[in-house]
Design a protein that fits this description.
The chain contains 9 helices and 13 strands. By secondary structure, the chain is α/β, with parallel strands linked by helices. It folds into 3 domains: about 55 residues; about 70 residues, Translation Initiation Factor IF3 (2-Layer Sandwich), CATH 3.30.110.90; about 160 residues, Metal-dependent hydrolases (TIM Barrel). The strands form 4 sheets. A 4-stranded mixed β-sheet has the order 3-2-1-4, with no helix packed on it. Strand 6, helix 3 and strand 7 form a beta-alpha-beta unit. Helix 6 crosses helix 7 and helix 7 runs parallel beside helix 8. It starts with a strand and ends with a helix.
Length: about 290
């Protein structure tokens, strides 16, 4: 297969070259050479893409996203979108991600993430590499459980496994492993999806069971956590990353650093909506963005 030459202003992650070229081997996806035009050996018969006015950068990564395939920011719609329709809409979203420059995404809870990941890996559809979590883990009656539906209907429709107590939590992690998940996503707190006050969800004992079972399977744990109590519980349990982290204090941040826990603030999810919702929500989000 002929090599591909990407031409334009090149940023390789550390250096910027105005008139540069990147030689890519499409059979492996690896970069053979990168540098200034005239200093890079260009293979014969190479396909050239780009040129003046084009920027060439490393692939972008989105560390927190969902293939909900919904049209509104509404929990009931998120769970009501049929799995097949969610997958078909998400194929469109995969193409949009690629066009925007994303080559890797970490997908933290949906009905179709593991299937989409497999389809991309098999070359069935075009899209970025997907690191899927399969369904997320949530407590019964928690913020990820649409309370207007009968419980069994919620269980059937949800993109989460509902689990209560350490042993149910361990079983839910095993279901994620069975599904082909490559990371475990747990809702350690409520959010603003159903309104009301932010509160912790799952006990430290339950979170520790989730972390232990996930680590035994070689998977990391990402904890959705709003509020100091939930974040502190997740950190104590030994999760690998705190997602959103609205209400994170400096003291807890230092604990995270000492334990090697990553922080994924998802700032873009709140820009533009910082003045929406209850006064409590507005205060938390505005503080989050200021930090």
């Amino acid at each position: 297969m002929d090599k591909i030459v990407l031409r334009g202003s090149v940023f390789d992650g550390s250096d910027y070259v105005e008139d540069g070229a990147v030689v890519v081997d499409p059979s492996t996806g690896l970069v053979d050479a990168c540098g200034r035009m005239g200093e890079v050996d260009l293979p014969a018969n190479a396909q050239t893409i780009g040129g003046e006015g084009v920027s060439v950068i490393p692939g972008l990564m989105d560390a927190h996203m969902h293939f909900f395939a919904s049209k509104t920011h509404n929990l009931l719609e998120w769970v009501s979108v049929p799995e097949t329709l969610a997958a078909l809409r998400s194929v469109r979203d995969l193409k949009a991600l690629l066009k925007a420059g994303f080559t890797t995404v970490r997908e933290l809870g949906s009905k179709c993430g593991t299937y989409l990941s497999q389809a991309v890996d098999e070359g069935v559809v075009d899209g970025p590499t997907i690191i899927p979590s399969s369904k997320s883990l949530a407590q019964t009656g928690g913020d990820d459980d649409p309370l207007t539906l009968p419980l069994e209907v919620s269980r059937e429709l949800s993109y989460s496994y509902y689990c209560d107590g350490p042993w149910e939590c361990r079983r839910a992690v095993r279901m994620v492993v069975r599904d082909g998940g490559r990371v475990v996503k747990v809702y350690a707190s409520s959010s603003f999806a159903q309104g009301g006050r932010v509160r912790r969800q799952f006990t430290v004992e339950e979170l520790k069971a989730i972390v232990d079972e996930a680590h035994a399977a070689g998977l990391r744990v990402a904890a959705h956590a709003y509020g100091e109590e939930a974040i502190t519980n997740a950190v104590e349990a030994g999760v690998d990353s705190i997602e959103h982290g609205i209400g994170l204090t400096e003291e807890v941040a230092f604990k995270m650093k000492s334990k090697g826990i990553f922080y994924v603030p998802t700032l873009s999810a709140y820009v533009g909506s910082e003045n929406a919702g209850s006064p409590e929500r507005r205060a938390l989000v505005q503080r989050h963005l200021r930090q």
